[in-house]
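TASK: fixed-backbone design
INPUT:
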């Protein structure tokens, strides 16, 4: 169970890296029509404050994931609170436009996060965080 947990955390970290790479590579430009790209640029400018708040949150999330690999109780709390704050922040992002690849990666990341929470709180593995 411990190795499964660590693999899920690494997968979660990898999915975040994949989202960043997809965003920076320009694959989105090839997957979306120009009208949606223009609209997406407008939405990013409109909700820039929320996107800027997401940057430190992403850094804390990455640190929390590394702490989870060491079964740190602080890392578990950080992971929980960063996830809760991220969900709350999503409510203020306004409409979003996503390409199929990014949406697929985000869906897998969400599934991994759910499995991580189950393993952290509802299995005997939770005792390792004491």
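OUTPUT:
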């Amino acid at each position: 169970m411990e190795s499964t947990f660590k693999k899920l955390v690494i997968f979660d970290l990898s999915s975040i890296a994949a989202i960043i790479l997809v965003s920076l590579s320009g694959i989105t430009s090839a997957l979306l029509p120009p009208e949606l790209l223009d609209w997406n640029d407008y939405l990013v400018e409109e909700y820039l404050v929320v996107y800027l708040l997401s940057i430190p949150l992403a850094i804390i999330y990455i640190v929390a994931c590394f702490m989870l690999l060491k079964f740190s109780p602080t890392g578990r709390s950080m992971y929980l609170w960063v996830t809760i704050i991220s969900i709350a922040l999503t409510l203020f992002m306004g409409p979003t436009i996503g390409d199929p690849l990014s949406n697929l990666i985000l869906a897998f990341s969400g599934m991994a996060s759910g499995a991580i929470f189950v393993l952290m709180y509802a299995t005997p593995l939770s005792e390792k965080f004491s």
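COMMENT: The mean pLDDT is 89.
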